[in-house]
Specification:
The structure is a homodimer of 194-residue chains. Chain A is an all-alpha fold. Helices cover 70% and strands 0% of the residues of chain A. Chain A binds a DNA duplex (30 and 30 nucleotides) through helix 1 and helix 3.
Chain lengths: 194, 194
DNA sequence: AAATAAAACTACACTTGTGTCATTTTTTGA
DNA sequence: TCAAAAAATGACACAAGTGTAGTTTTATTT
């Protein structure tokens, strides 16, 4: 497969991503992707053999891309509160950018295809994020910024709230101020008593 | 439609429910239901005209049934902690009884059919439950059992955690002790400082 | 520019699901 | 007990999706 083919494959994946964003996972057919890419039926089968395969490769692409959007803009002397707030703001943006995310498609996919818990990407992501937040809270406690008796619990609590907001957004819809209220509550419950 | 027909309709709905529990929403076809009910294709169409309609009626049936499973067993002199704990235990049971719930099907349905936020049943349920918890926490605070500066926030926080656990369970799977840890954390964060 | 290889196309055969309708079976009541 | 009504059946026509293969178009190489 030549260089040109690789380009085309990438083009198909990027176009297919848009389709998945728009229609979720289950509703998407080869025809949808063929039409979005403006290629022929047979042409698509030259590169991929099923929507499932395409979706998996889209996910792979996705996970390669959004590796380090975050690490960049943390100044070295930022307080734990600052960082936590930055993280939560980032999550808020992600949540509300609903029209550009694969969230629903990913849920649909995992409804059907549940990998062993051990190597479930969703679980890994969750655990990693929780670990990061935990460290963050621990730092904050050490510096006297936060009060918290169970940093791990608090971190997991935050993660579950974020999960809750995410699914709520997909089924009911959320407004920015709903997210703000949750963020506020989280920060307040970590704040030291005067 | 005679009495017998009504019986049969109910029978179909109950059987269809099992199918939805097993396969979710989108995957279910009329054929699946026909076979589960052991009736003929045409026969089913006599009662319902689409899987969507059947699903909606299943949901209606569901919501009529689980009205007051809870209110019953609260003794009049139970403390707020007791009641909250009972509520959370109930939620835990519900969560882990995954193999008998329509959770995934409901999510799939609302991915496709998002009603206006105003009359979205999911939102209503959420808000109502949050209100109940809020009152509960307020009672606890008044009696000196709980410490909480933002009862509404705390209530919503609990609800979002439960939502998070729910979707997590459908996509990754949870274990009883994961739920226990969350319940413990919630109770601890409401506990009065000594 | 001719020959070959690579890429793309389209039409086809197959599968699965839907909704309908002429017919058969069952129930009812006079 | 038998005629009419109600309920149930299953075969059919249709629609939408899949995967394939023979053919055509485009690109590459000598």
């Amino acid at each position: 497969m030549g260089e040109k083919s690789i380009q085309k494959k990438k083009y198909i994946l990027e176009t297919a991503r848009k389709v998945f964003v728009e229609k979720g996972y289950k509703k998407v057919t080869m025809k949808d992707i063929v039409e979005a890419c403006d290629i022929s039926r047979g042409g698509l089968y030259l590169y991929f053999e099923s929507t499932a395969q395409i979706f998996m490769e889209v996910l792979k692409m996705e996970s390669q891309e959004d590796d380090d959007v975050f690490g960049d803009r943390i100044s070295p002397d930022a307080s734990a509160t600052d960082i936590l707030l930055l993280f939560l703001k980032e999550q808020k943006k992600e949540l509300l950018r609903k029209n550009n995310t694969l969230t629903q498609a990913i849920y649909e996919y995992y409804f059907e295809n549940r990998p062993a818990k051990k190597d479930n990407p969703l679980k890994k992501q969750f655990d990693m994020a929780a670990k990061v937040i935990e460290k963050l809270i621990e730092d904050g406690v050490r510096d006297g910024e936060f009060y918290c008796e169970d940093c791990e619990g608090a971190a997991r609590n935050i993660m579950f709230v974020l999960e809750g907001l995410k699914i709520f957004n997909q089924t009911v819809g959320i407004t920015p101020d709903m997210v703000d209220r949750e963020i506020l509550f989280i920060l307040q419950s970590l704040s030291v008593e005067e």
